[in-house]
Every structure is written in C-alpha cells, then in structure tokens.
Amino acid sequence: xxSTMLASFPGTATGYTSSHLSKDHVSLLGDNExxxxxxxxxxxxxxxxxxxGIDEENVDHAVLMAFMSKYAxxxxxxxxxxxxxxxxxxxxxxxxxxNGRANLLVLVWNxxxxxxxxxxxxxxxxxxxxxxxxxxxxYETPDPARGQDAPLTVKQETTYKTDEVAYICDQxxxxxxxxxxxxxxxxxxxLYTPPNAADFGYNIYDRETGRSSHVYQAS
Length: 219
Hints:
Layout: H1 3-7, E1 19-21, H2 37-48, H3 61-70, H4 75-78, E2 90-98, E3 102-109, E4 117-118, E5 124-131, E6 133-139, E7 154-161, E8 165-168, E9 174-178, E10 186-193, H5 196-200, E11 202-205, E12 212-215
Antiparallel strand pairs: 1-8, 2-3, 3-10, 4-11, 5-8, 5-10, 6-7, 6-9, 11-12
Helix pairs in contact: 2-3
EC number: 1.13.11.20
Organism: Aspergillus sclerotiicarbonarius (strain CBS 121057 / IBT 28362)
Catalytic activity: L-cysteine + O2 = 3-sulfino-L-alanine + H(+)
C-alpha cells in the first residue's frame, strides 16, 4: 500500500491518536461489496507475514483498520463464531491464529455488559463492530510513580455502530468496552497483534483507585 493512501487515515502509528474508520474511508482499496470475510482473513494473514513476521513496531495499524473497514459485515459469514455464554459479560470465539503473529476473534457481548478497564500488553488492537453497537471509554494510564491512589482520568468516550472500526494500543491508554443496549447482544471482530495478552496476560485497573492487577489469561 502506498504511503499516500496510509497518510489519508487518522491516527497513524507515529501519532498514537485514538481513531476510528467507517466504510467511507476506504474507497482507495476498491469495491468493498465484493470483499468477503475470507478475503479479509487472507489479507490480514498476508500483511502480518510468516511465523517470523514483522515486529509490532513495524505494524501500521492504518493498514489493518483499512482491511477491517473494507469488509461489510454479513452475519452469514461469522454466525458460526457467535457462541455466547449468557453467564459471562462477553464470550470470545477464536476465528484464526494468524501465523503466530495475531489472534482474530469474534466477541459476543451480552446486553449492558462490558469488559474491565484494561491495557493491551504492548500489542495493537483493532476492533470492528459486526452487529449492534459498543461504547468505549479510554482512560489515561496512571503513572506508577505517583505514590497514591486516584481515580482514572477519562480521555475519550465513543459509541461505535455496525461496520465502524476503532484502534487502541498502550500508547493511547487504557479502555473499557461495553454493550449499552438493554435487549440485544452486540458482536465485534478483534485483531490483536502480537497476541501478547493470550500468551502472557494483561493488566486490569480499578476505576476509583487506579490500582492494577495482572490477569494471566485472556477470558
């Protein structure tokens, strides 16, 4: 992909600003009506390389967002990945381990349920809404040297609807994602590269104190 095309996307890897894309932003990639879920997975696999693939510093999240945005959500493509445990806030369904460099998952979110506030274990996370809507709150990462408890500071709050795409990494901050709807599930597609949270765990944070605790397996 050309540097001109990449420059047209907000929040490039050098700026680390939170950003999201809709299908309107990806006209340079061609006709998204013919772009299938299988092609999306193939393009992600090809971009991320072999099992010795590119280091996370060389991943341009604008490219990953563009692939995600190009795909128009079609439930027939991913219905088989929507297993849902109603006893949990959300259920993670693995779509593919991409060359050992990334995990692609479909998450099903129960009504008015969400994730804890968490980091991303020094990885990139790209999220696309496949159905329903999700609310994201981004928080400043607390300074471990501050020496006292304090509530987390909100940086940004956004509600994403079907086919919108968002990106976050630890340089942007922490976040919490939840389904605001009272009576319907939400479905989202998540790409984590590298898959550090699954391999090594990640940190969750208390909103009122800013204290963190380590979770050893993504759940």
